[in-house]
């Protein structure tokens, strides 16, 4: 045996270990182990082993042949004890279904609540109604992160937040590490946790405080490299259960997609957690995606687009058509597809880890047929919900002859859009239009964070009623309270928050102006002429129903310098200095002489003269 | 030519201003701060390693039956003789002292333990060591006493057995012995240990890990804590069998195939934890679907269904032959056996192995390794400082911030503190060695912080060529104009003929005339 020299010593050590901890003799226990080999080493739990993990997929057809698929994964961490020392000899951390890549980070940075969003695309709320999960699980286009961090001071909390951002950046392969002072805001009205005044959030050290921080990276590209880390967070690693459907190629080939992670800390007994009580993390992860079914089906059929043959054309029969002329008919209302067409994969097996089985529900109206395909058989249920119980291949098959009829979408309490106004490179304006289509006034909070190079003039804030009762409304009637923090150059963005009420059946526009600042030469990104992305405006509806929506991101053009400028400046200034110096030097050191004298001097200096002299010397030396 | 002198003066003053004010000012303004590192001192420490170190370990000797009033002196002579028989690369010696029970007891109450040799009369000659203390027992019989062999025997036991580790590293071998370097991780005081249960499929599994760890691993952690502090986590990973299923189709499998096929990428927990280095224990069960008959390359015996392998500098892999049934609970019995093997291998992974025949207690081995690690740390940090010196000398334009100098000074201060502890024969207890080790860890940390200083390594310095290139458009024209002007000015005095024609020598006159004759004066040519 290779390690024989130390083995005996270790035997003794191990004996020591056993003597210290138990009275059991190691030799004896070894014998016992081998005797009861089959019974003792592994035993099967009759009731099954279950971990706190759940997964649900909800598919819902939307108008105009769109399909919304919402994946939901929920998991809890193993309990931990905040009062326990990290370096105690008895401290062991256990990870089962909760991702090991997140928990140490969360514990190190004292995060009590974490929300991370990766969203991209356009949600057409006029067609599709409200956002999934009332908008609380979606972000603005790009990456959005907000968290409640425990800290003894704002600076300490910020340092932890920065460390959190760096950690997440590595875990999710995203540029979250670019979040810095200038991008971090401390929201006052928005994003407040449901637990009012942070009461329900555990505080592990009584002298600390909780800080809510928010930052977003507008229009950050979201791609496969962000999805793969998300899948590895799941215990099934995307290899079984509904997560096996998720594939980057298909998921990002969609009209709108959204990935969300929400984590919160919960404690069993809120009075005791600071003194060695038991706490755990709860995580919910959502993936929502809207796909246009006919275009995906046609792409499956013809991966490379090519013109259809005459027999495949569907002409609009209400218009003239013949062999040479065909107006394409409006979109088909007949459709049949299976989830494997949309996602490119089958569901491989069920998830066995959870308290409940993996569940797939189709929210369809009566004119739709939804069935589950288990290996080769098709089965249907009354409520169109299917549980995956066995380790087999599953697929969902859906068809409808009238896709224009779907479950009615929920009314959107408010529509909002924001746009840039003005022209030129030195100033501009922002105009946000709110439309309340309902018969009730809507009370909402408005959260806007603008980069420091947009210098906002709050005095120009103006309100205009463009539709509805135009009389009797002033800005003060609409805006209940406002919170504004002006920006500090390169250190802080400006933060604008309002609580406002939009009257029923009316459209109002809020506008204000800003100046565009000049940036330092090194502050421009590599593609400076692309412009600067401005993060979405976030609107949280407080009454009548809780709902959250975000406007699209904006692209602001700043005056961009010619980047060869510093080199030119060096060259030109050096040349000028050289010229001035030369002139000055000449003025001081050169003398003026008459032409004759100059000619004489020149005569002795010319090459011809010198050559002649040389010739003469040579001649005289050799005596010719 | 009354202005000539003034013009010459003006030219000279320009040159003087350029040389005396301009160049130093330019150099100063474009220069970077380079803190003066104590190069010579570090060079001496590097060239003459441990020249000021003499590790002295006190050993107390006591006899139960016979009283030997001079045994410690006699043993001291023998020990010195034995130690001097080999050239030491780090000076070390044992100080044999007479056992003083009250002193030892008093010290023990404060947690300080010393090496003790107990002489015990028996029917044979031999030695033994206690498991749980730094006590060596030497058995002797009457003829030994009669032949006066006892002092030599004590000396031999001490040097070659009790202090075998020192004997190996300090006397006969190399301090930075690299026998285990390929397997062992670099020494750091804090190591993260990840214990993973891997399963090829997704059926749920549970294990009695907490029980195993608290009853078995906690004492082990406590025991090793003077040398290495562990933070431990456990996790259950599904759908990962380290790619071992890919070997299932191959017929003849060598161990090299396994090491090629194995994929540890998902298990690197280094990223998530703040410790510098991490070790892993992975217990792998094959998937029931892909390997229903288990891994064919695992040879099992009746009482062992798994095989374990050391992955160098990574940890230990325990591969089970058969897949687990769904909903299995892995019992403490199974885990105890795995952990027994793992604890063995952990010593090798931590580099705590010796040539010793395994007769001496782990307590003594760990105690010895405290000294060896301290010396190795000192060596390592001095090497780091020397590299820093070489680096800064190689890159003359690299900034050396003041913090680096402060760190270097701190390292050198700590070094002196350690040397004091090591050299002091009256400080030979547990706590002193612990303190020396802690200090040496701090020394390594500080030296590495000095070497990897962000300001220095950012490479945000201009190389000399770069600096010249940037300033050349300015310096070039000025320098050329200035110096060619001054040269012309001084030439002028040599060649300008005196205004009075009388002073022209006859030779010069002749030359001018001849020149005019050949039409060498350009002005004349032009006129013609």
Automatic annotation (TrEMBL), chain A:
Which GO biological process entries does UniProt record here? attachment of GPI anchor to protein
Choose one Gene Ontology CC annotation of this protein and give it.
GPI-anchor transamidase complex
Keywords from UniProt, A to Z, are: Membrane, Signal, Transmembrane, Transmembrane helix
Q: From which residue to which does the signal peptide run?
A: 1-21
Which residue windows are transmembrane per the record?
Answer: 567-588
The record, for PANTHER family, names:
GPI TRANSAMIDASE COMPONENT PIG-T, GPI TRANSAMIDASE COMPONENT PIG-T-RELATED
Under which name does UniProt file this protein?
A: Subunit of the glycosylphosphatidylinositol transamidase complex-like protein
Upper classification of the source organism reads: Eukaryota, Fungi, Dikarya, Ascomycota, Saccharomycotina
Automatic annotation (TrEMBL), chain B:
**Where does the UniProt annotation locate this protein?**
Endoplasmic reticulum membrane
Query: Does the entry feature the keyword Nucleotide-binding, yes or no?
Result: no
Q: Is Transmembrane found in the keyword set?
A: yes
Chief location of this protein? endoplasmic reticulum
Q: Where is this region: Disordered?
A: 494-528
InterPro entries noted in UniProt: PtdIno-glycan_biosynth_class_S (IPR019540)
Protein name, per record:
GPI transamidase component
